[in-house]
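Give me the 3D structure for SH3 domain-containing protein.
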Amino acid sequence: MQEHCRDSSLNDPIPQEYIMYLLPTGPLGTSLQEFQAESLRLCGKNRAHGRFPHITLSDFFTCEDGKVECLYAALRTAGELVAFPQTISLSLYSSSSFIGFFLNKEAADAIRSFTESFCHQVSTLTDCSLKPVYRDFHLTLAHKFSPHHQMTLERLAKSISPTQSCVWEAAIFSRDMRFVHYQTLRALFPYEPQNDDELKLCVGDLVFLDATGISDSPEGWLMVACHRSGCWGLVPENYLDKENETITWVKQRKNDIAEEFPVPITFTTVETRRVLLVKHAESLDEVFGHHWLTDHALVNGVYYRQDLNFPVKLPHRNKVQDFEEDPPLSSCGMFQARLFGEALRDSSLKCVSVFCSPDLRCIQTAHLILT
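Predicted structure for SH3 domain-containing protein (371 residues):
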């Protein structure tokens, strides 16, 4: 959340897009992933490499943020109402532009009933217009490939045993609808901006590119939006490489529907878990600037409390100068953290686990809240 502090769209009421997939896991899932890797190595990329192995159960649909919990309830209810087959048989099919598995009729009918139930529940609970997928359910192995690669892809596909044990998961994924038609790229190198219209990059950062606007950017540069921060800016074109669009998708919920051995579907009620995100309290650099130590608090190399908002003393360190790059909390910041901790205590909220940045100001904030 702190990374998005300069995201101009942070508070915009933009809903996410959702879709439901049926995912193979276990030995069959592993074989399918190995097929993707080997087919990419031998034949290059085709459209099937853009997404992980799956069977599409719904089209994309939008849902208001305040009603997302209803999607989870719809998935749970659909799983309770529909009896799934003990096994799902897969039949290999191949053509000049498509290679994949189709489901046997019994399994397809059961999954279609599940999908219809889910869509009905979603439409009832969220007022979303969601219709089930009526085309034949299939699991794509290769799509839109070069004709001279067909034999190699067929050979690899035939090496997959469709009778392997498999746990099938019905999962809901979400994506940012603002970047649906954008390319997803990954940063190969770090980049520090030299001008105000440029974007900072860290290795591995994911960015979104509007391919229709490439001609409007300076030669050798691309105008992109950073997935990590939500900020826009120019970056060097040769610092980026293409990435699959699903890398930024979020897996919201899943439900196991068919397992290696037939077992009834059960749902266990668990206690709600909550995550409390806390920004560090006021630190000295936020009040007195980045050079707060050398400009205000050092006298002949010794820390001096020049202002009441400075702490009485600093924690022990080998070099006091290290605090300039890792500043502590101010006196007001310490008071803020203690007050926040008292509010948590009075609200009877109990923290089970705490994850904290190694920055001194974050450690101090967490310590004062807990004590």
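Residues 92 and 189 are 42 Å apart (CA to CA). Let me know if you want a second pass.
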